Amino acid sequence: MWRRRCSPPPTWRRWSATPARSCTWRTASWPCSRPTASTPSPATPRETAKEPLTVDWDAGHYDTGGYEHYLLKEISEQPETITRTMSGRLDERFHVAHLGGLNMDARETRSFRRVKIIGCGSAYYSGQIGAQLIEELARIPSDAEPASEFRYRNPVVDPDTLYVAISQSGETYDTLAAVQELKRKGGRVIGIVNAVGSAIAREVDGGIYLHAGPEVSVASTKAFTSTSLAFALLALHLGRVRDLSPADGRRIVEGLRRLPGQIEQILQQGDKIAELAKKYAPHPSMMFVGRVRGYPVAREGAQKLKEISYVHAEAYPASELKHGPLALIGPDMPTVAIVPDDELLDKNLTTLGEIRARGGQVLMVGHREPDAKLADDVIVIPRNEIELDPILLTIPLQLLAYHAAVALGRDVDKPRNLAKSVTVE
Ligand code: AGP
Q: Is 169 in the pocket of ligand 1 (CB under 6 A)?
């Protein structure tokens, strides 16, 4: 029997045409596939150094469960999926989040001076929500960048930066390649991933699994909200080892606990949102605007609409409208405005006035009905802590996109030209 210790030259994996042989060094974390002429193939089952992995998904996740489409099922599941994402991770005694999967002690958790988040498409937009949460709660400079751009620009990799890769599938090639580039340069990378045991999950140093269950529809919905929620947990975790007070920690923990019931309340407005979708879907183009916390929500809303209904949609920071896109506003270009009741409310209401003054229709998503002159239609959502607003504001936009796609007769779960997991460059 071959008893030499295995060392892990990277080329060994490529020798896989030769039967892999077991290694007596049981702690080895790579397959020992070194071929030798003197060792014939074993007749008995081969040992493996790999640990078995149990995935808690069942067959019920793969039918539509009585819904017309997977997408509607996945939107409707969000009270449960976000409950699963936070389950067992919130501590009411110290008002912290327990994230053992990060594999980091408190001293290391305190040591990071920046957070850099990478992901593609909707994962990137949830990263923008995450960057804001981390800056607000942990006061660490943070930003998000498309992984597809990051990997090509020869990034400076900083030892004091925590890198966070986001992926529902865990198989997106651009994100995986960016993680590999970071690791190659010695970066500390964690993952926020839904698919257990996926390529990105295996590549990172630790992370947070979403436990949202399989997402079948091409358009991401429940993974988006669970990722945003995972960022709230990460921000709480980073904040509470720094300067976030116990009182603010408690405020966020209690806010997180309220989210499932509040999402349920928004879902109950499904019929009203379906009517609004019928009204707005025939327009060739729509504008989505929001400020600060509302801006990534607007980007995700526009992404959902264009992806499944094929209606052209643009997202802009509301503050940028007058620097160019205001020229597009008119009766043919309605605006979906994200207007939470936060410190930017007055500025957002001024923007609505500017849009209406140019003959543009406004569908507002926020916490209260504004003056009738400022919006044609309003979707009111429940109040929570302002830092958590993006999670609740996203839900009506998912429903709006879904019902617009249905009204236009689109292939909701498999939109043209798109794949669920983009495993090529
Ligand atoms: C979302 O609706 C899109 N289908 C797409 O942007 C997706 O989020 C992106 O391709 C990233 O996928 P991942 O989360 O599996 O990495």
A: yes
Distant-in-sequence, close-in-space partners of 256: CB < 8 Å, separation ≥ 6? 86, 90, 229, 232, 233, 388
Pocket test for ligand 1, best of 117, 411, 422, 423 (most atoms within 8 A of CB): 422
Ligand 1, atom 9, residue with closest C-alpha: 121
Tell me if 121 CB under 6 Å of ligand 1.
yes
Report whether 137 contacts 239 (CB < 8 A).
yes
pLDDT digits (tens, 9 = 90+) for 202-243: 999 999 999 999 998 989 999 999 999 999 999 999 999 999
Angle at 215 between CA 217 and CA 213, to 5 degrees: 155
Report the predicted TM-score, pTM, of the whole model to 2 decimal places.
0.87
Which of 419, 425, 412 has its CA nearest to residue 168?
419
Q: Kindly list the strands in the beta sheet with 312-317, ordered across the sheet, starting from the edge strand earlier in the chain.
A: 312-317, 285-290, 335-339, 362-366, 377-380
Do residues 257 and 90 make contact, with C-beta atoms less than 8 angstroms apart? yes
For 157, the enclosing helix (H) or strand (E) is: none
pLDDT digit string, tens, across residues 110-167? 999 999 999 999 999 999 999 999 999 999 999 999 999 998 999 999 999 999 999 9
What tokens were used for 39? 């060792």
Biggest CA pair distance of the chain = 85
